[in-house]
Specification:
12 helices; 407 residues; 2 domains; elongated; alpha+beta; 7-stranded antiparallel β-sheet; 16 strands; single chain
Length: 407
């Protein structure tokens, strides 16, 4: 990990076991950002990007020096009394090195988690407080809340400090209630509740560790948080989620949407969470079948974008795992052993299976995977008809299914 010394603006490479306390910056990239080589060669040190670095430096050092008579820092944590280092993604990563970029992408969530404090710079927010409905509205509409990479930057750190365009503290998201005395009155409670509403993340999850989030939430639920976020590059929609799922995989820019499929394949290799299948196609997806009023197919077995999990925030892993409900990705497709209801409906002229997923949700479509027989293999389908309108169930037993990945 390469850190920036806040007094001298020099870099130092630090390794596990010898990393000093550091502040970390979260922001939305803009024009004139300063790179690692710019800082090393002392070139292009002007403009908005360099002003942001100097603003982060001045803000952190100013807070570090504020000490109450009792010795308490006028900041979140006593660690900041000794902070001399900072980390900024624009200039602390040599992006011309593919090896260093890969390490950074796979380590970034952990770096945010281990920081003494995360300072969020909201360059598009001018309000100096967040109290009135108009101020909350401006705060909630910041582009920072719409970006893919900022999701892990919100959840991973223990303390997240929100600053406006003038580096004035607006409030914070904090894991430890005892730290709340350092922000404007009531801002801890208010910001956590408001952030939960804007991001569709339960407020209780904003006060726990990233490890606890991974343990207590389903894959589908976490995917839903990224449903309406954006990244500049298609591949980053997958790479920005690596830390949220504790997955490590090499980035390969140029692979496009295959990156999101690779992420899901890695999740299947490491997890038995059926909720990875608890997604629905977008409403405007066309179908060639004439009975599309109640069923559409074929679909790939894995989602192509987190937006397909937009309605899955309430999906949970079932309390009791069925040991025989195993599944895996092979060189030919998905192999899934599970209990399923079998139907035959006139007009479809094929057998339809509703596979019971090992998860809980608000409706049948969140807890069942619809498969249509298309020869020796099956393909994924999406149903809009309730089960009680499908007619007689011909069978309800456990079996092994072979599902095409991309029919």
């Amino acid at each position: 990990m390469r850190l920036l010394h806040l007094e001298s603006l020099r870099f130092e490479d630090c390794f596990d076991g010898a990393i000093p306390p550091y502040a970390i910056l979260s922001h939305r990239w803009g024009p004139q950002e300063i790179s690692y080589k710019d800082m090393r060669k002392k070139r292009n040190l002007h403009g908005l990007g360099y002003d942001k670095i100097l603003g982060f430096r001045a803000f952190t050092l100013k807070q570090r020096r504020k000490v109450f008579p009792s010795g308490r820092s006028d900041f979140f944590t006593p660690d900041l009394l000794s902070i001399e280092w900072g980390w900024i993604d624009t200039c602390c990563i040599d992006k011309t090195s593919s090896a260093e970029l890969s390490e950074a992408i796979n380590s970034m969530c952990r770096w945010y988690e281990k920081s003494a404090v995360c300072c969020v710079y909201l360059s598009d927010v001018s309000a100096s407080v967040v109290e009135t409905s108009e101020e909350f509205d401006e705060f909630s509409k910041s582009q920072w809340f719409t970006r893919g990479w900022t999701l892990q930057e919100l959840l991973a750190p223990q303390d997240v400090l929100f600053c406006n365009a003038s580096w004035k503290v607006l409030g914070h998201k904090c894991r430890i209630k005892g730290h709340w005395y350092l922000c404007p009155e009531r801002s801890g409670d208010i910001l956590n509740a408001e952030i939960a509403r804007w991001t569709n993340i339960e407020a209780s999850l904003l006060t726990v560790s990233i490890n606890q989030i991974r343990r207590t939430t389903s894959i589908a639920c976490r995917m839903s948080w990224a449903a309406h976020r954006k990244t500049s590059r298609v591949e980053d929609m997958a790479y920005c989620l690596l830390g949220l799922f504790d997955i490590h995989m090499p980035p390969m820019y140029g692979e496009g949407q295959k990156a999101f499929q690779r992420l899901q394949e890695e999740l299947i290799r490491r997890s038995n969470d059926h909720s990875i299948f608890a997604w629905a196609p977008q409403a405007n997806v066309a179908s060639d079948v004439p009975y599309a009023s109640w069923i559409k197919y074929p679909f790939p077995v894995l989602a192509t974008h987190p937006v397909q999990f937009a309605g899955s925030s309430d999906v949970k892993v079932a309390g009791h795992w069925r040991p025989h409900a195993r599944f895996m990705i092979t060189n030919t497709g998905l192999e899934l052993r599970a209990k399923a209801m079998k139907y035959y409906r006139p007009g479809l002229d094929r057998y339809l299976y509703l596979v019971r997923l090992n998860c809980e949700g608000p409706d049948m479509f969140a807890t069942h995977l619809a498969l249509v027989e298309t020869g020796p293999w099956l393909c994924r389908a999406h149903m809009t008809t309730p089960v009680d309108q499908l007619g007689e169930c011909l069978d309800n037993s456990e079996r092994l299914f072979y599902v095409e990945m991309k029919p």
